[in-house]
Design brief:
The protein has 13 helices and 18 strands. By secondary structure, it is α/β, with parallel strands linked by helices. The strands form 5 sheets. It has a 7-stranded mixed sheet, with helices on both faces. Strands 13, 14, 15, 17 and 18 form a 5-stranded antiparallel sheet that branches. The chain is globular and about 75 Å long. It binds 4'-deoxy-4'-aminopyridoxal-5'-phosphate.
Length: 405
């Protein structure tokens, strides 16, 4: 698929062709996205919304067109429900502050899950410390899927919000968010989905899913860094206070006090990243030009192929083996005597052979603690990866294991 659209894939690393398998950390960018950034600064860079002059109007139009494209991309009812942020972390922090101010009081409870990235743990911990609230988490079953019966047991009249990852950035497993949302809503509890690892890999429809909030990052879906999205249902966003003060988010400012702008601007203080939103729009168009059906089928097949090849290597332990995954696989390698080859050593030897894989805790320390290891080796795929990448990775891994055993 379309490798030639991504100039970086022609690079060599340590004199070897680059095999980029770190897409869960960030994806590479197609030429159309790279060109969009240059086009913006060469032709219409200007601060948006307040300018009467031509360039400002062009920039404003591009930014608001991008908002509409994002809304359509995730199936939102209205572009007013799309707030541009810096990324998933920023979106979740914004929500934690804003929702916390309006809805969390002493003794209230928030539920996350055992597979969360730190970005969907720490903002809630900070909120809980501020408000004397309690953070709970859905545990894992033996097979490393979420224990939904335990989730039902955690929900009670004190629960004010559930915030869960759609796809685990460590295990690649797809959490049953439809079921979680149904169960939470039956108890009147809203649900936020951390879509950092799902939005780049599967067709999202927030209205069909019925999530109350969705957070995701542009840079993991072939867009630029520094732009992300917080989607919220209008009913919620209207109720919540802004999380930051400054320009654009205001209606009127007087010494006696300030009134706030309407949605979505109430949540966008300061000069927004309008070049980023434009380039993100190009990334969305790029994905749409290939089509979700093709992207999903390709990545599903590639992930299954890689898992099968990995399972054939002696000593490899795949986490959540056999469970369907969205483009991410974590594993460790154990020697004959069941001792762990440190993932960092494997990562270093892979790198020397041109293979970019990630090692460590993947910003999910509680999950890594649960797995009982210091970290894992993680490979993750994008739409441009193919079987030749998997074959190169497997050959490099076999060589690394041989050297380290
Ligand atoms: N949540 C998940 C599930 C992630 O994988 C990541 C990125 N590794 C984040 C949140 C944070 O994303 P960002 O660094 O783009 O804010």
């Amino acid at each position: 698929m379309k490798r030639e659209d991504f100039p970086i894939l022609k690079e060599q690393v340590h004199k070897r062709p680059l095999v980029y398998l770190d897409n869960a950390a960030t994806s590479q960018k197609p030429q159309a996205v790279i060109d969009a950034i240059s086009e913006a600064y060469c032709h219409w860079n200007s601060n948006i919304h307040r300018g009467v002059h031509h360039l400002s109007q062009v920039a404003t139009m591009k930014h608001e067109e991008a908002r509409k494209a994002v809304a359509a991309f995730i199936g939102a009812k209205s572009s007013d429900e799309i707030i541009f942020t810096k990324g998933t972390t920023d979106s979740l922090n914004a929500l934690a502050f804003s929702f916390g101010e309006a809805c969390i009081h002493e003794g209230d409870e928030i539920i996350v899950s055992a597979v969360e990235h730190h970005s969907n743990i720490v903002p809630w911990q900070m909120l809980c410390a501020r408000k004397k609230a309690v953070l709970r988490h859905i545990p894992l079953r033996e097979d490393k899927t979420l224990d939904i019966e335990a989730f039902k047991g955690l929900l009670n009249e004190k629960t004010k919000l559930v915030s869960v990852a759609h796809v685990s950035n460590v295990l690649g497993t797809i959490n049953p968010v439809e079921e979680i949302i149904r169960i939470a809503h039956a108890g009147g509890v809203p649900v936020c989905i951390d879509g950092a690892q799902s939005v780049p890999h599967m067709h999202m429809d927030v209205q069909a899913l019925d999530c109350d909030f969705l957070a995701f990052s542009g840079h993991k879906m072939y867009g630029p860094t520094g732009i992300g999205v917080l989607y919220g249902k209008r009913e919620w966003l209207e109720k919540l206070p802004p999380h930051e003060g400054g320009g654009e988010m205001i209606d009127h400012v007087r010494w006696s006090g300030t009134t706030y702008n309407e949605l979505p601007f109430k949540f966008e203080a300061g000069t927004p990243n309008f070049v980023g939103s434009y380039a993100l729009h190009k990334a969305i168009e790029y994905i749409q030009s290939i089509g979700w059906e093709a992207v999903e089928a390709h990545e599903r097949e590639l992930t299954a192929y890689c898992e099968e090849r990995l399972a054939g290597i002696e000593g490899v332990h795949i986490y959540a083996a056999g469970i369907p995954k969205a483009g991410v696989i974590s594993f460790n390698v154990f020697t004959d005597h069941q001792s762990l080859i440190h993932p960092f050593d494997i990562g270093t030897l892979l790198d020397q052979q041109g293979v970019a894989a990630r090692t460590g805790h993947h910003c999910a320390e509680p999950l890594i603690d649960d797995l009982g290891v210091p970290g894992t080796v993680r490979v993750s795929f994008g739409l441009y990866n193919d079987k030749s990448d998997v074959d190169a990775f497997i050959a490099a891994l076999e060589r690394a294991v041989q050297m380290l055993s």
